[in-house]
Every structure is written in structure tokens, then in C-alpha cells.
Amino acid sequence: MIIVLKPEAPAETAQELLDRISSKGLKPLHMPGSERVVLGALGDERVLAELNLISHPMVESVKAILAPYKLVSRELHPHDSVVRIGELAIGGRALAVIAGPCAVETHEQTLNTARAVKAAGAGGFRAGAYKPRTSPYKFSGHGPEGLRILREVGDETGLPVVTEVMDTADLDAIVELADALQIGARNMQNFSLLRAVGQVRKPVLLKRGMSATIEELLLAAEYLLSAGNDQVVLCERGIRTFERATRNTLDLNAVPYIKQRSHLPVVVDPSHGTGVRDLVAPMALAAVACGADGILVEVHENPVMALSDGEQSLYPEGFEALMAQLRPVAAAVGRTLG
Amino acid sequence: MIIVLKPEAPAETAQELLDRISSKGLKPLHMPGSERVVLGALGDERVLAELNLISHPMVESVKAILAPYKLVSRELHPHDSVVRIGELAIGGRALAVIAGPCAVETHEQTLNTARAVKAAGAGGFRAGAYKPRTSPYKFSGHGPEGLRILREVGDETGLPVVTEVMDTADLDAIVELADALQIGARNMQNFSLLRAVGQVRKPVLLKRGMSATIEELLLAAEYLLSAGNDQVVLCERGIRTFERATRNTLDLNAVPYIKQRSHLPVVVDPSHGTGVRDLVAPMALAAVACGADGILVEVHENPVMALSDGEQSLYPEGFEALMAQLRPVAAAVGRTLG
Amino acid sequence: MIIVLKPEAPAETAQELLDRISSKGLKPLHMPGSERVVLGALGDERVLAELNLISHPMVESVKAILAPYKLVSRELHPHDSVVRIGELAIGGRALAVIAGPCAVETHEQTLNTARAVKAAGAGGFRAGAYKPRTSPYKFSGHGPEGLRILREVGDETGLPVVTEVMDTADLDAIVELADALQIGARNMQNFSLLRAVGQVRKPVLLKRGMSATIEELLLAAEYLLSAGNDQVVLCERGIRTFERATRNTLDLNAVPYIKQRSHLPVVVDPSHGTGVRDLVAPMALAAVACGADGILVEVHENPVMALSDGEQSLYPEGFEALMAQLRPVAAAVGRTLG
Amino acid sequence: MIIVLKPEAPAETAQELLDRISSKGLKPLHMPGSERVVLGALGDERVLAELNLISHPMVESVKAILAPYKLVSRELHPHDSVVRIGELAIGGRALAVIAGPCAVETHEQTLNTARAVKAAGAGGFRAGAYKPRTSPYKFSGHGPEGLRILREVGDETGLPVVTEVMDTADLDAIVELADALQIGARNMQNFSLLRAVGQVRKPVLLKRGMSATIEELLLAAEYLLSAGNDQVVLCERGIRTFERATRNTLDLNAVPYIKQRSHLPVVVDPSHGTGVRDLVAPMALAAVACGADGILVEVHENPVMALSDGEQSLYPEGFEALMAQLRPVAAAVGRTLG
After folding, report:
1. Chain D: touching chains (3 or more CB pairs < 8 Å)
2. Nearest-Cα residue of chain B relative to residue A310
3. Residue B107 in contact with residue B144, Cβ under 8 Å?
4. What is the pLDDT of residues C187-210, one digit of tens each?
């Protein structure tokens, strides 16, 4: 850690801070320059965080040298992790494609969509029983009844099912019925939920918050791993920017950036990442080209009748066409597609 | 609601959509232009949301005419609401000043800080027992023990106490001990929590999410009011932008914008809104000048020893100086300060 | 155009505005709803812009129905435009790869880099003689001497050369010596420059401004086309967001979005779009996968010695490796690579 | 400057870089830690910039210690600068109010508006002869004829006049007729223009770019001062964020932040900073409360007929009301208003 003092800081401040650094068992460094005095502290920066040196009125800035995450880091764990959701492996050579409607609406709609995406080659099924909605007046999912339908459809089709958990109070019910849990963008920094999900033994799909930095996403995953759950898949789903043509700005830079720094698998959600049906397929191809381990796609048997997110849902034939386009791109980057 | 069709849309699409609009009891309008066909639907737009017209492959765009919130709107409720937290009224002529440390650390630190802010003129006390922290390795509050200390300090000083709730599982305990609940920026769209807090009968301080639009903040408040809790105070606390000089960008535009559209009181948190101690006082003055009903300020008896947020916490003497600066500004805009 | 009146607007306001709409030769529409009066105006919205209806104190909002750009639009010009820079065609089936150093430093460095990128398969060469730099203390290009070197290197290698114009005062010199002009991100809304470049007969590479919406990029191109220059290539080069891990956020959503709405070719600059050498190759692959017509890549014979942008410049061997990776991806999406 | 090496960097890299640091006459520092090797370089960081250490493939990150600007800094020049535009002083105890229409439309409209703002207490007049417009189809000012009218109105009213320069080609004409030059947000990083304006001897109002960081604004001012023009006033006018309720997000944090670091005067433009007439007055009050040296406000004798920006222009009576509200706020923060 590097500590820059204000120009007016007296010599005693430097000594006081060097003593505090030593008291924590770290190696202090004193670097008096012509315009600023700079201090260094070598060692475990997590210990230094407790010193809270930035709070000192004579400190101008504090700069960390090491990344604040550990367990998710490739430095600690150099090889790619592979997360298994039932038969679906995420993070290996084969791409994972998880598809399905925004929400479980009826048994029929859910089953029809699941059969269609399976026929086109999807390896996992997604649908929400609990849906976050910006307005209290919109459909927010069927809850336990939705979960039950989802489990039945999973059993009927043989596809592993992923569904969102929004509240620690619902966690047990979802763990019992789903094959993997999703933590949605709005809950990426719901730390109570992260701690609770860290204690269960189900794979987790952790979506990036819409204004979360990549570092914050990795720290959210660090909550899960440090609580004991290392079956974590990260998901880039678009961030909020000034651009209004698309619902979100899909930040594909995040894919190779994270793959270089973390061993966790990364998938991309081009449906939320664009919010526009016609952009889903090209951005799915781009995601795979830059190294994503899979994609998460919204498909509805009849988007015009969808109770939510219909504007970004593919028709089954659109999904089938996407799978056909995806195969040669996957092969071009050395991946396979079931 | 205005529905713009794609240039290639056939005449049957227009008829199909007009029929669907009529079927919901709304008045349909047909406006064929030279380059686009435009449809209108007059009436309650919440009903139209169910039609999900944007999902139709021949629809280019859908534009709402009415705001999606109702109960928080000044159209429905033209007069200012006043929310009372114990003796403190927020939303009337008198400004509300709520101050205190980021977190309850010890009884002594909490009590000393509470006494200091009361002596300087604060009308409410804030401190966290449950703290959201980006990293799992940082101090996240003392939980129930922190709550207990907070209640004692509230009783000892006579200041009403506000504290954050992060999880529905903790709600009962916090409702029992606190005078008002805070929903933090990271939980502004934790809809399970909003629904649960909407059912209790305690005032709520709802902070704007760091990437939430003003409309989304109002819709989050709408969750609370529609669930039955109308004792809601909105809080602007800075949004996330590209600017790196400050921790957040305090969006004071939001204050007069909301005051013109909603009857709910609005307070401003210049501590999180800037993240820099030296900017807290000037931005508190600005908040009051543009119409805020109060401020929320972090103060710590000794910020250098704070376990969190020390860099943005005022020293007690800094808070006292701020209160002295605030009085003439409050008077200049027709407000009073206790 | 749709005009929503404020709830308190009197009936005379509606009549006044309808008359103004009629006076411009447009068809007025009156739609009185239960909560708001809505007016419509059908016809050429550019004429309506002059009416400036949003300025009226009784108007709540004005919503355009048609895109504000015309000449760049696919509605007017359904087929893809192909722009030729010397032998290099951009916008057809073959991908265009334009590579080179940030700046012309010496004849030797420029020639060596040009030969290396040509050997690896690039079809165009880029290097700056005039460089925009955030600080006045940094190297800002060799100006006319740099232009002269660039022309020589173009002639020696046979590669067409692209270089940035920053000032109308330099335009004649650059038009004389370069094969195509680049308008940089910081000048995308330098309207004097756009008008001047619109008058010359050289192809233009127009980069998206770092906070420009896609619509603003298309309107900047509309300046060029409306002034008479239709040899325009659009370039996505990353936008400014809250994310700090990368220098910019490459917005690949823009590629298919623009391709669907405009006939102009679109290329992507993954060097500026990421600002990180290790991310350039994966993002170049992603760009091609989602439909870009080419890429613009910074390559330097020895980035460690580069006078600018070295951290995002590929080594010649890195560029060669990228070209090898690019070929199968191009083939997978039906494109060829020279 | 602090240089962090990658974990895999060999010992020779450290030595190589230390030698390069020494070769520039700076003091090198070697700090081998347990997880990373950190190097330091003490001395003038502008010299280090040439070394471009971030380009080295074994360097993980480079962190500057000193601000990259010098001449605009309060460290070099501790006292407030006062810039004079005719009789108007900006940066002293008296607040500067510059008001006027977006554009010069006719002599009559310009004169009427100037008389109105002077009567209400404005000390300067603003109006554009050259207007940046997003679309080529919109009114972009009357150019030389507009300049001539502006000069006449300045002479007739005795108010000093400020107008925008968009192109180095127009600079001489504007310098001859205006009392101060404005560099608009879209040209804040038009470095050719900055260098040219740096050479003239007229005061400059430099507006912050809509996606410019505060540091970039200060560096743009550094261009002007380093070229010889130190009569510079900085202007905060709103930045681009995800928020859509307002045209821009006025970043008032920037006001006290800059005042603490720079000796240059800072004014605020609440008209562009909000884009909404009803928000102009409250945000003007907020600007003054947090320390702005003045405000820049759009006023039009009849906004409904304005050729541009009517929706954010005050009516003359609105401006008069604002001035009346501003006086007590100015007094509350120790300022005077003419």
C-alpha cells in the first residue's frame, strides 16, 4: 500500500503512520520526495485496511497495490474452474447454453419453451419464479407455484434448471427444487443474501450489478467462496451507461479481463445486455468469440404473450437460428457446442 | 400510450393491436402518417403494460404518456407530506439534520458522537449495526449487539435513531429497537425487502441506488406506499458516473425535480454523495439551497479510528462549524434550523 | 411528433399549438385523455423542430416518432455502402484491417511497423501526425513533418494511409497527403470540422465520441453526407463509463444496432476500446463476430519505446497472432480476410 | 510515481526500469514485497511520462503521485485569481451573473433580452453567433452578422459580451468583437482551439466537457495558461450520466473540489446543467451556496419563440425572481450580488 501525505503534513505525521504500520507487523517505507512525502507498507493489505489511513486529515491518498480479492483470483488458483449444474459443465472446452423464458407463467408455456430450447441444443433451462420488477404494479412471478412447475419441467425434459433467489427467506425452498441458483443484478451487493447462498451447496450464477465494477463483481464472488461455496459462475449482463438506444451496454471487455484474473467460469447474457431482440444473436456470437464459457438467453414460445421481457425474448425459431450461427464461431475459437 | 409501428408493418397489425387495446377497455387511436403508422391508447397505462405491446415484432417503439408511479405523485396528493421520527419532523419548514457515525463501534464512541451532534443541533442520530461492505474481509457491523447499543444511546440522549435494515430476516429486531429504518442504496431495488418494510409501521429513509434513475427511486417508494407504509423519506446520496475525483456524483438536480413531482420529503447525504470530508459542508449548504428538507451527515468522534468511512466523516468540530454555516443559508431560503 | 400537455394546460393552449402545427403544413391531431391532453403532428419532423414546442410552459414533453437522421439511414438507402480507401474496400464481404502506431515518430519506426502489418495481412495503415493529448506537456505529433513521413511510407509499402485531422486549418495539407482522414473521438461534435471535411472528396473515418450516443454519431455522419461527402466509415472505439478496469468500455452493441439502421460501414477500434494490450485480440474477434466490417488496431514495432499509447499497442508478433485467430472467426460469420 | 511489476517479472526487469528512472535524473526506489515488486521514482513526474513505463509487458500498473497540472494549481499560486471581463470581475467577493439567450437571433430580441437582464442585475451578457448543434438541420447561428449585432448590443447596454468560438478560423473576428470568448463543452478537448485561444489576450470561459473528468478540465485550462493566457474562468455545466429525467447531471461536487485545488474562478451554468426551466433557479442557488464565483444563465425575451434551447431558457420575469432569491443566499455565504 502506498500512502501519499498532503504537502503541509508535518514530519511527526509520517512517523506516527510508520509506527502504526509497524504495529500491524508490516514493513514500513519512508520516501520523502521534493513535493510530497510518500509512505509504503509492504505485506498483507487486508490488515492495513483496518488502519483506515485514508481517514487521517494529513493523508492525501492511499493506493492499494494488490487486488482486494483472493479466493477468486487466478494467482491463488491458476487453473480454470469447471462448475457442474447437473449434466451441464461450465468452464471447460464445451460451451454452456442456458435458455428459457424470463418467467414461469404456466406449466404449458414453460414445458413448451423447455422442449424447444432442448431440441435446439440448450444444455440448461432458466425461468424465474420470483421476478424483480421496477414497478410494484407488474407481474412479479408465481413464487412457490412457479418453483414447482419449474421442477416438473426440469424432470420432464431432463434439463437442469436455474432460477433466481431474491430473499434469504425463500432460499431453502429454492435450494430444494432448483439445480442452480441465480443471484440477479439488483442483488449482487445484497450481502446478507451472498452470505446465505455461500452456505448452501448448490451452484450459483452470479450476475454483475448494473453499476458494479468488475472488481466489485469479483468481491461479491469472494463473499460466496469465503463462505464456503466455490461453485460460482459469473455472468456479464450489461451495465448502465448514458446510451439510450439499448437497455444496457453489454460490457464484453469484462469477459477476457475476468478470464485473465480469475479461475471462475464467465457466461454472458445478451438478452438483458441489449434489451433488444434483434441484437441478441450478434452479441451472443461476440461473447463466444471473446472467450465466454457460455451464454444465457431468453426464449419464449410466444414473446408477444410474455408477461415480462417479451421485447428481448427470442422466438424458438430465432433461438434455433442462433445455435446454428454459434457452432462455427465456437469452433473458430476452439470450443465445442453440444 | 403511443405505439409506433415499423415501416414494414402490414395494415392487419394495426388492426390487431387496436383490437387488443379496445379489449382492455381503453380508447384506441389510429394515426397513419407518411412514414410510420402511429397508434394511441388513452386510459390507465398500467392496464396497457399487461399487453406488452413492445414485444410485437412489428412494433418499433412504445412511449408512455403518464408517469408509472401514482401514490408518491403530487398529482394525487398535492400537499407536502411530513414524516415524523419521534420528535423530528421531516418535510415541514424546519430542516431535519440527522448525524452520526457510519457504524456503531462501541457504546462509548456511539454515545460521545451522539452527544456531540445533539449539542451542535442535530435532531436525529444515525449509525449502522448492519453494514453493507464491498469486501467480505471488512468490518460489517456488530449486528444485534450494535442495535442494543444504539437503542441505549437513543434513550440516553433523547435523539430518535435511524439504522439500516439489509435483510428481511433482521426486520423484526430492527423495528423493535429503532425509531426509523434506512434502506440503503444497494438495497433500493431489493423488492422483497421493500415489500416487507412496506408492511411495518415505522418511518423509512429510502436511499437512491447508485445507478437508479429518479423514476426508479420513486417506483421503489411506490412499493412502500402501495404496501401500506406512507412514512417515507427519500434520500439523494450520489450516483455512479465516470468522474473519479469524488466517490460518487451528488445529483442535486434530483432534489427540486422530485419536490416538483412528489409530495414525499427529500433529504441529502453529502457524506456518501462526495466521499471526501472537505466537500461535505459545501454540498450540505448546496442541498439546502436547492430545497432539500434535511441532511444526513456522517460524524465520528475520531474519524482516524473509525472502522469504516472515516475519510468522509466529519470531526465533531467540523459538524459544529457546518451547523453554523447552515443557519444563514436555511434562513435565506425560508427554512429554520433547530 | 407527440406533444403531451401539462395537466393544468387550458383548452386554448391545445388550440394554439394545433394552429401552429397546421401553419407549418403538418397534420394536427387532438387526443384528449382522462389525465392528459395529447397532441400529434404528422409529417416531416424537421419542420416541427422549428416550432420548438418543448419551450412552451404548458408542454410537459415532446416525443419524436422518426429518427432525426435521413441520409445515413437504411430507410433511404437500403443497400450496404462500400467505401474505398485506395485498394482497400470497407463494407463488402472482405474485412478491412487497418493497423499502425499511435503516432508517426521516425521514418524508420513508421516504415518498420508498416512493413510488419502489411506482411501480417493488413490492408491499410494508420498513424497520427497530429495527436490529441489530454496534457499540454505530452508529445502531440510531428505535424507536417509527420505527414510527409506517412506519405513516403504509404508509397514505399503500397498501403493506403489514414491519419487524423484536428483543425480546419490543417485540412488542405492532410487532404493532399493522406488517403483517408480520421475524425477523432474528441472532435466528433466539432461541427466546423465536420462541415469542412464534408466538402472534401476523401474518405473519412469518423470515430464515436467518448460520451456520444449512437444517434449523435449518426447525426455527426449526417453532417458529412449533407455537406456532400458520402465516403464515411463509422468507428466504435469505446465509451466512457464508471468502469475503471479498462480505459473505455467498448460498446459492441453499437455494431449490429448501427448496421440495422444505417447503410454506412462500421469498424471497431479495440485498442482504444479497451486501453489494455491483452484485451485487444479477444475484442477484435468479438467485433468481427457481431458484424463489424473491419478493425482498427494499434501496432508498434517496439511499444516500450512508443511516445504515446504504448500500453495498448500490440507487438508485431501479437498482431500476426491476432490475424491468425481472426481468419477462422471471419469465415465463421461469412466474411473473408485478405 | 509508483510502478507495480507483474508477479512473473524477473529481477532483471526491476533493474532495467530502475536504470531508466535514474537515466532521467530521478531518484529510483526498490521495494520488493512478498507478492509484488514495487518500484518508485521520485521527482518531476512529467519527465517520467516520457518513459512510458506502463507499456512494458512486465509492468502491472503505474500510479502517479502528483497532479498532472501545474499552472492552474493552488500549490503554485495559493491566492484566488480574479478575471476581469470589462467591468465585471469574476473570482472576488462579488458574484458574477452572466445571462442572455442561447443565440443571437435578431437585433431586437438580443437588445430586449440584454436590457432585461441588465435591469435585473446581470453584470455580463452571453449569446451565441456560432452555435454547436447535434443535427445539421437545426439553426446554427448567424455567424459574423450575429457577432456584429452582439457588439452593438454590448455597446448599447454597457454590458460586456461573451460568445462562443468553435473554430480557429473564426478566432480573429471573435476576438475583435467580443469581450470574452467561450470554449464550449464539445470543444473542451479541441486542442488546436485551446492552443490558439491560449495565444490571444482575451478572457476565456472554459466549459467542462460533458464526459470530461475534473482533472481533464484542469488540464484543458493548463493548455491555455501554458500558452500564455491566464485569464481563464472554469464553468461546470453538467455531465452525461445514465439519468434521463434531466438533460445533464449538474456536478456541483466539482465546484468546491476545484476551488480547493485551483486558483481559477469557477462559475456554474444551471441552464445546460439541468436542461429544464423549472430547475434553473434552485440549482443556481445551490451553485452559489457551495462556493461558485458566479452563474451563467440562459434568458430569452420569449422562450416559446427561441430558435434553440427555449425549454431551458428563463423568461425575463423568471430571471428577475431568481436574482431576488439569489441575494440572501449570496449574503449567507459571505458574497455580494450587484
Report:
1. A, B, C
2. B55
3. no
4. 999 999 999 999 999 999 999 999
